[in-house]
Every structure is written in C-alpha cells, then in structure tokens.
Amino acid sequence: MPRVFDERDLFYLRQVIEDGLPCAGYGAGKMTQRFEEAFAAKVGTRFAYACNSAMSGLHLAVAVAGAGAGDEVIVDPTVSFAGLAVMYNNATPVFADVLSDTYLMDPQSLQERITERTKAVIVTHLWGLCAEMEEIMAIAERHNLVVIEDCAHALLAQYKGRYAGTLGHLGVFSFQCSKHLGLGDGGMITTDREDFYQALREFEFTTMPDKLAWNYRISELVSAVGMAQLERIDEYVEETCAAAEKLNEAVKECPWLVPQAVPPYCRHVYHLWVPLFRGEEQGLNYEEFQRAAKEIGLPCSFGYIEDEPAYLHPVFREPAAYGRGCPTACPHRPSVTPYERGLCPVAEEILPRMVLFYTTVAAKERVEATVEKLRRLRERWGKKFHFTP
User: Fold this and answer.
1) What distance in Å separates the CA atoms of residue 198 and residue 3, rounded to the nearest whole number?
2) pLDDT (tens digit, 9 = 90+) per residue, 282-341?
3) Which CATH number, 3.90.1150.10, 1.20.58.1190, 3.30.70.100, 3.10.150.10, labels domain 234-305+347-385?
4) Is 103 helix (H, G, I), strand (E, B) or coil?
5) Domain 7-232 falls in which CATH fold?
6) Helical segments of 20-71, H only
7) How far is CA 342 from CA 168, 252, 311, in A?
8) CA-based diameter of the chain, in Å?
9) Are the CB atoms for 237 and 156 separated by under 8 Å?
10) CATH 3.40.640.10 domain locations along the chain
C-alpha cells in the first residue's frame, strides 16, 4: 500500500523538536532509544541498535564478528551488499551458491566454502523469504562462525515461528524508502547477545574514540518517524502479502513464470514478487516475452544486478575496492581469491531470469492492473503454446 504519513508522524516529530535535539550528540538520543526498544519488542530480540543505513549496519556486524584483514566471510552472490560490507572491514568475501527454487543460500555450498580463515556468514533473506536457517546455524555452530542475517527485505518474515533477525547472532534491517518500514533511510541491528550489543556501542564515534569507530548515528527525526511507521508495519506487510497472493494466482499453472518457492514453515513478506522465467521448455523466447511485456505495459524489470552475480563485477573481481589489490589480494592471505565465472553456477543461471515486481508502496489499483496484464499475457502465450491457462 502507499506509505501513510500523517498526524501520528508529526506527533513524534514535535516531541523531538520541542526537546531541541533533532540529532543526538554521541550515543543514542531519547527518541532513538525509544525506537530501539520498540523495534526489539516487535521482532522479539533482547537488543536493537539503530544506525543510519543497513549498509552501516552490515559493516558494524562484520566488525562485531571480528572479521578483518586476512579473514573470510561467506556471503550470497545474488546481491552485492554483504560482500561490500565485508570489504569495508578489510576482510574477504567468499561467495556460496544459492538454491534454484528459493534463490537463497545453499547450506551445502556454505559448508564447502568454509576454511580455517572463515569468521562469519552473512545470509540474505532475499525478497522477504528466510533462508534455511536451522541448517545454516548448525553448520555455523560446528565451525564457531558468527551468523549475520541481512533482513533488509524481510521485516516480519518468519521461519518456523520466529521472526527474521532473531535466527542468527545478528540481524540487520533497512529503512530505505522502498522497504516495508520506509523512513527515507536508516537501519537497525538486532541481537540477543549482550556482548555483541556492547561491542556495537563501543564502535560509536566520539571526538577521540578508543579504537577505530564510525559515525553511523541515526537522526532523532528519523527515529521519530520510525516510531510512527512501526505502529503501521503489520498493515504494510499484510498488503504486500495480499498483493503477492494475487500475483501468484495470476500465474498459477503457468509454466513459464515460476514464483519463488516458499517452504510451508516460512512466511514470505514480499518486499518484491520475483518469479523466474522458464519459457524455453515451452518454446517461448525470453526476448520475445520481454517485448510482449513492454508492449502491454507490464510494470516489471528483467534480471538483477545486470544479470551477473556480485563476484563478476569490477569492485570484487579486479579488485577495485582500495586500489592496491586489497582486501581480496591482501598480503595477510596466502593467495588471491579467484572470482571467476562458474563459481556459483545456480546464481549465474537464475539472475538473468528474475522478473521483478514491486509490492511495497504499491496501491491496490496498481496491483490489480498488474494482475490483469499478467492474465492477458498468460492467455496470449497459453494459446500460442497449447497449454491451458
């Protein structure tokens, strides 16, 4: 549904303005503390730590996990964010492949990528669906690894009755404007471990910090809007789930658009609805389908991150991070990390086949129009290739 900003948001903003401190000095301001406590209560963790973006949150989580120069952190290849966060802290991202039906980290591939240098894992709950966390956590426990959940898409997503952000050791959420809790920008880190929470507080920037720290503070004004928007989050999530249900129904029994598989023990919250194009098996050309979709005005995009996994992009592959080969060719490592085609074959195969539809901040009328256009395409291609729509 479209984001609602009204008197409730102004109510919290006025409190900040009347206090005369729209941005706290060092440490969390009063409104930010309230926002952290309310968010922790909502998702069910002991602690929550607000920051100015999810990228800042991922970086802090890597730092708290103790991964630095010469260390490795295993990440997903379908997005760049986890890998970039690892390099922010001078560690090396190692890419595990994904499952072809859920697009999420393959636990077997994770197991295969672990070395004596592995310190942590960043698991992305892509598009709003939780990864196979029970198996991932069992692997991590055997190897003493810190598990960081990238929950940017997955606020209120559930896995076996528990919310995303409570399944690993640290969870990181995004409040960028397109997300379920869209505040313009901002982020939140969740954890049940007091030592991790205290470590996050120790990384807060001061005039002269005791160790390297970063100015990742969130504004009191953003926290104020966060308080109001958090009160509406259930409604926002219910709307995206309802939109996805309609879209799933529109392609039911349609073999050339296959929605992301959702295990029965998961609740998908659909930051986006992303089916895979599988038309070749019915003789349907992908380029022809894209042209037809554009002609009919289907509001979608084709492929993700330029149809290539993160490790094939220059920032990782050349590497172009710091200009001197670090961190992937770091002198603290015995060899250069190879980022070559074929490293994650499933990710390479599915990324160009993704068809992305926004469900967040989409009015019901737009969703219904999209459903109708999908039905029209389904009818057209159903007749052409002789299957029953």
Assistant:
1) 34
2) 788 899 889 989 999 999 999 999 999 999 998 898 877 777 777 877 777 777 778 999
3) 3.90.1150.10
4) coil
5) Aspartate Aminotransferase; domain 2 (3.40.640)
6) 30-43, 54-64
7) 29, 32, 11
8) 71
9) yes
10) 7-232
Neighbours of 172 (CB within 10 A): 32
| Number of residues that this document lists for the chain | 389
Helix (H) / strand (E) containing 267: strand 266-267
pLDDT given at position 43: 98
Contacts of 70 (CB under 8 A, 6+ apart): 91, 92, 117, 330, 332, 333
Distance CA 182, CA 185 (A): 7
Which SS3 state, helix, strand or coil, does residue 272 take?
Answer: strand
Q: What is the pLDDT of residues 202-227, one digit of tens each?
A: 998 877 778 888 999 999 999 999 99
pTM listed for this prediction: 0.94
Q: What is the pLDDT of residues 178-197, one digit of tens each?
A: 999 999 999 999 999 999 99
Q: Please list the residue range(s) of the chain that carry CATH number 3.90.1150.10.
A: 234-305+347-385
